[in-house]
Structures are given as C-alpha cells and as structure tokens.
Design brief:
single chain, alpha+beta
Length: about 260
Amino acid sequence: MTFKTKLFTCLLLIGVLAGSIAQEEESTRCADYYKGTYTLKKGKTKEGYIFINDCKPHLFQQSLRVIDEKAYTRYKKGKKIKKKAIEKFKVKEIKAFALENGRTFRQVKYVNLASTTKVGMLPKRFLLEVAADGDIVVYKKYYRTDNGVIHGEVMDSKLAGGPAHTEFMKNNFQILIQKDKSKNPKNIRSVNIKNYFGDNTEIIEKYQNGDYEFRIQLQREAAFGYNCDMLFLNALVEMANDYNKGINTELSSNSFDN
C-alpha cells in the first residue's frame, strides 16, 4: 500500500468517525423516546414510548415508531433496541398521538397550494402538532431536512449543525389553520382571517384596535417562504384560544382587512 493510499484511507476513516460522532451528538440532543398514547385508525388507543426527533421532524410527521416498556428500560440503560422491538406505523394508520409532556398530534390531510408542480399539489397526510384546539384548530407543520424539497435556510442550518440548528428547527415552521372540519386546513399566510374570526365581534374589535399582537405578526414579512416562528404562533394561539372560549358569537358587519 502506497503512502498516498494510506493517507487517503486514514482521512476517510477520520471523516467517517467524525460524521458518526456528529450524528450521535445530534441524536442525543434532538431525539428520544417519550411516553405517550397513540390512537389507531379504527379508534383503539394504546400506550407506548414514541420516537421524536426534533432535528428531523419530517420523520414523526410521516410515520410513527413505538417501543414498549421493556424495550424502553433497555434503551435507558444504554442498550441497543432490537429492530423487532420497534413497532412502525404509516401515517394513514394513526389518527392521533399524545405525549405525556403535553404535546399532541393529529392526522391531517393538507394540500400545498403554493407548490409549482402538480405532484406537489396532491393532498398528503401528515401527523401535525396541535397548537390550539376547538372550533378553530391551529397546527404546526415542521420542515423536512432530508429528501424532497428543502428550503435553503433549513439546509444552511442543518449544515451548520449544533444547538443552533436544534433551536432553528423548533422555532421555524409553517402554520395551518382549520375551522370547517369537513375541509382540509390551509396555510395561515394564504387565508383571509375574516373567514375564521369574522363571526366574533369582540375578537374582531380587539384585533382592529391592535389589542392582539397577531395583527402585527401577520403584517411581518416571512424570513423565507411561508415561514412562521414562535412569536407569530403565540400571537395566533392567543387569538384562537379566545375564539374557542366562545366569548362572543354575534355576526359582525364591520369591514375587516388583514
């Protein structure tokens, strides 16, 4: 073996080792199994430990991996989980799931009307996190980091890695809103707000008077695409929660612009 071959082999091994360490560090920082419940398509609810990777949220938005108590105990002791111990579900098999820490997710069919291709505009099912629930439902749709269409800003964050990437993935997402349960939710940046809050005069008045931070957030330009962040989400959730409390349901005759 020549010197150049030895050097190349050594550098290759170093690269593989570094990549392995980086991947392990990311998994420790972003991913874990969380105790929770999941509801199957036919309505049966089961308990288990659900895999969540906040650095690769497309994984739990498109499928579910669950282990039982015995496998979880082995996992926490640092032992490797056997493949046969992991129960995998396709998104169409799960109606909803909830984690013991309070996070809840629901199967949603969404049509990306902003897509530039016919394939991209086909309705797709996702398991999306619920941010507000009631007559108006607000969902968080996280970004994918592997395969398919990836935003440049998301890819830049992924390549940079580290804790900043974890925070980026948690703090940047799209928001979907749904009122008519017979229709698919829509992206918050593509709707007329009047169609969702227009039958509550008290909320409209507060919105128009600037009492809701959401009006300011809605006028703030997205960093990229239809992106939203936690400031935007929290402002919308406050308004949605007030609506869901049913404070006032009289039909408004006021003019209403975003």
